[in-house]
């Protein structure tokens, strides 16, 4: 019997899976607005992935709820202001005004390192789904949360020693966290950073390669060194760095492929797995099921190479249940 774990591995290895693996990201705003529709999607198109809890012996301090209106303080000490139920807020007053003077305000959440390996392994043994570890490094985004985006962009161009020291410290922490997860029985590790605006990277590609590519290479090496697959998420237009992600060995990339254009991405088909997604800016929000159907078929034609695509879809603000349903219906039809 082919399990979900087998199916995902066949897809990542481009070994001719019988269908594309499924993963629905139903955000709290969608689950709140369309509870019956979300439940029906989960029944009719069961996912092939599951996240594994770390069963941490210690919990990093937080305050509030990140998905309700109001303020939420994260594990690093950053305060997010949320004005819409069901989505994540934004940092309005960054914690770090000066990297030297304000370093003591930052709480590096070493509580995340207190995972229970035996409990994790029991959870992995108890499922046939493809499992993902609970760590999710996001160095660029975390620096923005701490410092503010505009200030960080300027810092990267003219860095002070205290910034470099903190990046080194943060990276060592993330590597330690990933290594602990890599020593468990999970199938994969994940990391993320939203790198793109609508039409370009948020910083110059050369600066990205100087500061962040080496960090990501280390994450990939940790995963592969322990026999794990590694997945990355990044929103926006990131076409300029996809060859770099392929070079360092990222197995699967979740990105806004319609923002970049399928014709531009076809050159990478067969070199990396496209972990979704279908256009949630326009198609899922204001398109028709027929248009969604055509979009999925275009993804299949341009990017499927005996595998190499995951039927991932985000059901978020503005998403229409009929369009989300069509994503999975069409993926079931195109691979027979």
Supply the key terms:
single chain; 336 residues; alpha/beta; TIM Barrel; 15 helices; globular
Give your account of this protein's structure.
There is one protein chain. The protein has a single domain, classed as Alpha-Beta Barrel (TIM Barrel). The protein is about 40% helix and about 15% strand. The protein has helices at about 5-10, 30-35, 35-45, 115-125, 140-145, 150-155, 160-180, 205-210, 215-225, 240-250, 255-260, 260-265, 285, 290-305, 320-335; strands spanning about 20-25, 50, 70-75, 80, 90, 130, 190, 230-235, 250-255, 275, 310-315.
Structural topology:
Blueprint: H1 4-12, E1 22-26, H2 28-33, H3 35-44, E2 49-51, E3 70-73, E4 79-82, E5 90-91, H4 117-125, E6 130-132, H5 139-147, H6 149-157, H7 161-182, E7 188-192, H8 205-211, H9 213-225, E8 229-234, H10 242-248, E9 252-255, H11 257-260, H12 262-265, E10 273-275, H13 283-286, H14 289-303, E11 309-315, H15 321-334
Parallel strand pairs: 1-11, 2-6, 7-8, 8-9, 9-10, 10-11
Antiparallel strand pairs: 3-4, 4-5
């Amino acid at each position: 019997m082919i399990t979900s774990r087998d199916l995902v591995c066949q897809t990542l290895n481009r070994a001719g899976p019988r269908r594309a693996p499924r993963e629905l990201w139903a955000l709290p705003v969608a689950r709140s607005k369309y509870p019956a529709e979300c439940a029906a999607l989960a029944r009719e198109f069961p996912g092939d992935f599951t996240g594994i809890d770390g069963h941490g012996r210690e919990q990093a301090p937080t305050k509030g709820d990140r998905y309700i209106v109001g303020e939420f303080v994260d594990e690093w000490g950053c305060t997010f202001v949320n004005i819409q139920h069901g989505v994540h807020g934004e940092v309005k007053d960054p914690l770090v005004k000066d990297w030297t003077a304000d370093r003591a305000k930052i709480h590096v959440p070493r509580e995340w390192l207190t995972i229970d390996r035996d409990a994790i392994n029991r959870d992995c043994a108890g499922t046939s789904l493809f499992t993902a570890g609970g760590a999710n490094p996001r160095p660029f985004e975390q620096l923005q949360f701490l410092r503010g985006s505009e200030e960080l962009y300027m810092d990267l161009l003219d860095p002070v020693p205290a910034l470099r020291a903190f990046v080194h410290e943060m990276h060592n922490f993330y590597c330690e966290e990933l290594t602990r997860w890599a020593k468990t029985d999970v199938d994969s590790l994940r990391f993320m950073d939203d790198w793109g605006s609508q039409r370009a990277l948020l910083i110059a590609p050369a600066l990205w390669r100087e500061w962040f590519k080496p960090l990501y290479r280390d994450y990939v090496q940790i995963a592969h060194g322990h026999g794990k697959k590694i997945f990355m998420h990044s929103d926006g237009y990131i076409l300029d760095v996809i060859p770099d992600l392929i070079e360092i060995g990222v197995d699967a990339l979740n990105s806004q492929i319609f923002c970049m254009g399928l014709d531009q991405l076809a050159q990478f088909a067969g070199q990396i797995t496209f972990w979704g997604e279908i256009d949630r800016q326009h198609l899922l929000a204001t398109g028709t099921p027929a248009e969604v159907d055509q979009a999925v078929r275009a993804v299949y034609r341009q990017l499927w190479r005996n595998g190499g695509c995951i039927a991932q879809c985000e059901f978020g603000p503005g998403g229409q249940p009929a369009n989300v349903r069509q994503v999975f219906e069409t993926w079931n039809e195109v691979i027979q």
